[in-house]
């Protein structure tokens, strides 16, 4: 007997943002960032893994010289609620002095992750720092952080797709939605 395997799309409760809406918004963000950083060389810091698809689409739309550094930071650890403790392993030999840094993450939720990374980046002597997130949740942040570019504001619910996971799954959905948990 074979068990029928259906697509992961059917595990979604609701689609919040479909693929064309995401693509259009990310292209517009790329245009705004390219204009703001015109004439500069960027150092892009990406927080993996959730930002994977966002940065892949965004950065291909920015025609400026850049180097890309990825790091992992997390406060979720496989659950649907933040643990409140941010793990932030720092890449070795990362010299950011005098660099124009663009920090990218998938979601601004409690603000703890981005706040911790921003603190560390400022301490590294960057010339300038701008932050872009694809999603920002409408909720009170445990830590208020400044973000310069926001793709979409969403309600305070747990979402998956377009790089974002639940226990390692659903990253490959082209849309963003909520799960039937
Ligand atoms: P914060 O430190 O702002 O609470 O957490 C931000 C990180 O938690 C995001 O970068 C993301 O990795 C994860 N996160 C927050 N909300 C969600 C969500 O709704 N879905 C998923 N898959 N990850 C989330
Ligand atoms: Mg993340």
Structure description:
The protein has 181 residues and is an alpha/beta fold. The chain has a domain at 19-73 and 96-157: 3-Layer(aba) Sandwich (Rossmann fold). Helix content is 21%, strand content 28%. It is built from three helices and eight strands; from the N terminus they run βαβαββαββββ. It has helices spanning 19-36, 52-59, 112-123; strands at residues 12-17, 42-48, 66-72, 100-108, 128-137, 149-154, 159-160, 176-179. Helix 1 (19-36) packs across helix 2 (52-59). It binds guanosine-5'-monophosphate and magnesium ion. Magnesium ion (MG) binds at residues 47, 50, 105-106.
User: Would you count the extended β strands for me?
Assistant: 8
Helical residues, percent: 10-25%
Helix/strand class: alpha/beta
Mean pLDDT: 92
**What quaternary form is this?**
single chain
Ions, cofactors and other ligands present here are: guanosine-5'-monophosphate, magnesium ion
Main sheet summary: 5 strands, parallel
Residue fraction in strands:
25-35%
Instruction: State the CATH topology of the domain at 19-73 and 96-157.
Output: Rossmann fold
CATH level 1 name of the domain at 19-73 and 96-157:
Alpha Beta
* Helix/strand order, N-terminal first: EHEHEEHEEEE
Shape: globular
User: Radius of gyration over alpha carbons?
Assistant: 17 Å
CATH architecture identity of the domain at 19-73 and 96-157: 3-Layer(aba) Sandwich
């Amino acid at each position: 007997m074979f068990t029928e395997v259906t697509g992961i799309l059917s595990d979604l409760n609701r689609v919040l943002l479909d693929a064309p809406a995401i693509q259009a918004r990310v292209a517009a963000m790329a245009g705004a960032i390219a204009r703001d950083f015109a004439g500069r060389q960027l150092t892009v810091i990406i927080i993996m893994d959730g930002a994977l698809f966002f940065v892949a689409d965004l950065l291909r739309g920015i025609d400026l010289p850049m180097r890309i550094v990825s790091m992992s930071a997390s406060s979720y650890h496989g659950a649907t609620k933040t643990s409140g403790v941010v793990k932030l392993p720092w890449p070795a030999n990362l010299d950011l002095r005098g660099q124009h840094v663009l920090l990218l993450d998938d979601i601004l939720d409690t603000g703890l992750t981005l706040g911790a990374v921003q603190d560390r980046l400022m301490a590294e002597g960057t010339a300038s720092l701008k932050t872009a997130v694809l999603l920002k949740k409408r909720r009170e942040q445990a830590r208020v952080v400044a973000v310069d570019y926001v793709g979409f504001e969403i309600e305070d619910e747990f979402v998956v797709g377009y790089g974002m996971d639940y226990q390692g799954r659903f990253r490959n959905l082209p849309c963003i939605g909520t799960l039937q948990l």
